[in-house]
Give the backbone structure.
Amino acid sequence: MVPVQAQKVFSEIEKLKTDMTSVLMELIRTPAVAPENGGAGELKKAEKLLQILHAEGFDKIERFDAEDERVPSKRRPNVVAYSYGENSSEKLWIITHLDVVPPGEDSLWTVTKPFEPIVKEGHIYGRGSEDNGQSLIASIYAVKALKSLGIKPKRTVALAFVADEEQGSMYGIQHLLKQGLFKKDDLIVVPDGGNENGSFIEIAEKSALWLRVRTIGKQTHASRPDKGLNAHRIGMEYALALDKMLHAKYSLKDEYFDPPESTFEPTKKDKNVDAVNIVPGEDITCFDCRVLPNYNIEEVLNDIHGLAEEFEKKTGAIIKIEVLHKSVAPKPTDASAKIVSMLTEAIKKLRGVEPKIGGIGGGTCAAFFRKIDVPAVVWSTIDETAHQPNEYAKIENLANDAKIFAFLAIS
Ligand SMILES: [Zn+2]
């Protein structure tokens, strides 16, 4: 049974749906792309967010900017908003990120332009709508609903809005962790992953390895390939061979994870020459690898280098492997941690489903908490459209996830 007080909160949240939708759309209109992807960072979006938070009457709002010379403002903002609870020593943290990935191929955005959000059949379309706008707004409105009804949360609710999640979190959650805000018995929710009905609680993740493969040959006129060395062909051959080798060698499946196997994906492809009639002397392909914690990431990297050397000998090209990002999977959050059972209870009561507890490809802020032995769960209700064209958030999920957050705050 859901207590009467909670039911009141839920109908309040239902009433706030229109507001939630328009505020999310307002935030989507302000891109917050990382400097690595040619963006100016999160400052403008954080300023909008601060206006919203100030209007909602949080008990305390703090800002922790990280210095970053690469953005015009030289700052990467991190914002924390508190709503004090009856028990001020226990804190429920809901951690979301402000930054978004770039839109990708423009022509693939067929519903609307990436930063011009629209609502269609109960879906809000736009870059950052699902990742991580939906949860960001849901966390704010969970608190707003309690405030409107004059309900003090049982424990202090702290909302953190961080920068730089999509590029490794150096200027985001890692910067915030250095401020000493978090304690071992804090309850940490990172709503930055999940499934379509919110029945999956993530407590473990895979190791991540991002690579840039640079193949160097010799540029020449395309009518005389014999006078050069086609880096594009060798680069493609190496990429395909690497893809095959990694999948064959690291093929273990662990049903605890979703997907159960390690993934090795060729992703970004850098532009090479300007004209069709030039044989490229350089070729760049990137790989995103998510490896089950059973495997040693250094061993994977050794194999990648080994295959590159083989190709160098075979072709005469030079293949340089640059590691763009490497994170070794931390120890999973204990399945019996308080936040895991609280969330399990909330999902059972509110949704009538028994959630599955497991691991995913990972790379969320939760990893940084697990590294320092603070239990953290990743959970939200999403169709997993993040990083894709026509990314969307369902208004239904926006409201229903806010109910779960509010329930965690008061029960
Ligand atoms: Zn995200």
Summary: The longest strand covers residues 87-97. The two ends are 12 Å apart (CA to CA). Residues 97, 131-132, 165, 192 surround zinc ion (CB under 6 Å).
